[in-house]
Amino acid sequence: MSAPSVRTSNPATPAGAQALDRLRQWPGEHRVAVGLSGGVDSSLTAALLVEAGWEVEGLTLWLMSGKGACCAEGLVDAAGICEQLGVPHHVVDFREHFKEQIVQFLVDGYAEGVTPLPCSRCNREVKFGPMLAWAERERSIDRIATGHYARVRHGDQSDNGRHQLLRGLDQRKDQSYFLYDLPQEALGRLVFPLGELTKPDTRLEAERFGLRTAKKPESQDLCLADHHGSMRAFLDTYLPPREGEIVLLDGTVVGQHDGIEHFTIGQRKGLGVAWSEPLHVVRLDAAMNRVVVATRAEAGTDRCVVGAVNWVSMAPPAQGARYRVEVQVRYRSQPVGAWLEVVPATDADAAGGRPHRCQLQFDEPQFSITPGQAAVFYDGERVLGGGLIQPPVA
């Protein structure tokens, strides 16, 4: 099957031309399955690969039924892009797998008083791993491409053979935080054509191709929140109301709540508590069904423990090793300086196949360190690794 061509007489932007050059010089076979969500980023990814001469097939995962950008609307737009580019389009029904791996993971986490991070888990357990397996099994394609703003530098002797995950060049769109949990085997088979583009570059290139998604707005919510109308509505579908107390650090009762799952660490608004100064959520106590609040001055912490660690651009270090790192504790947060020390893992870590645990000592006390969210370790643009912030020991 020969690769289709893209019909456009307009010259590429400088950033687009550089992306095309990189794709044309890519080593190995130029066959790829492109993960298409129906958004502009994945659409342009497919268009650039086609223009660069790759043999492209579109692959869309059907994750949920009903409304939402990643449901009916996304499927229609993904199919339309493949028709426009003249490439095959495959839709794979992953609804049951998504429910098991993501929906239940979220429900269990919120019920236990943590704020789960579904996107990195979805990337590993639902998207990249299963997509690679499907493409290889059904289409004999061993590479996939997506529209993520991140980069992979494939391993050589200087990196001890490890593939390096790097930040995207557009700091405002960099998505490496959500990719920290990918294994080396997957990283070696990924193509990120947009890793050195900015979002404005992407829009301009999409308009150059005349893609139907060129001006499509971005979804601002987690897909499940978009699907259900809000995160609260999603949680209320699965978790019954359970009233409890809102208390200060010393146990003083200052209010009532209708479910700890409706709160997150650092939250100030919507507490329904009148106090002499603003209060913030500092802990969710699932055992006592309590929301613990404090003033901002009392809400900071200078350390946390990170479990279920995945080492990305560096080999797993020995227990007791200490490293100077930059840490990002939320997707939109700025990286902060810290010392990382590898500490003994728990039996649960070992049973889960992640026998690595770290303690982070921050240079400055941090606000909103949230159990269940990821702490991702960086050395400049390199993602060294990351894991999930653990609840503090009571």
General description of the model:
- With 394 residues, the chain is an alpha/beta fold.
- The chain has three domains: 14-226, Rossmann fold (3-Layer(aba) Sandwich); 241-298, SH3 type barrels; 300-389, Elongation Factor Tu (Ef-tu), domain 3 (Beta Barrel), CATH 2.40.30.10.
- 29% of the residues lie in helices and 25% in strands.
- It has eleven helices and 17 strands.
- It has helices spanning 14-24, 40-51, 72-85, 95-111, 118-139, 184-187, 199-209, 223-228, 231-238, 296-299, 347-351; strands at residues 31-35, 55-62, 89-93, 144-145, 150-153, 164-167, 190-191, 244-247, 253-257, 280-285, 290-294, 301-311, 322-328, 336-343, 357-366, 374-379, 382-389.
- The strands form four sheets. The chain has a six-stranded antiparallel β-barrel. A five-stranded parallel beta sheet has the order 3-2-1-4-7, with helices on both faces. A four-stranded mixed beta sheet has the order 9-8-11-10.
- A hairpin with a 2-residue loop joins strand 16 and strand 17 (382-389).
- The longest helix is centred in the first third of the chain and has 22 residues, at 118-139.
- It is globular, with a radius of gyration of 22 Å.
- 41% of the residues are buried.
- The mean pLDDT is 91.
Which features does this protein show?
SH3 type barrels, 11 helices, alpha/beta, six-stranded antiparallel β-barrel, 17 strands, five-stranded parallel β-sheet, 25% strand, 394 residues, Elongation Factor Tu (Ef-tu), domain 3, 29% helix, 3 domains, Rossmann fold
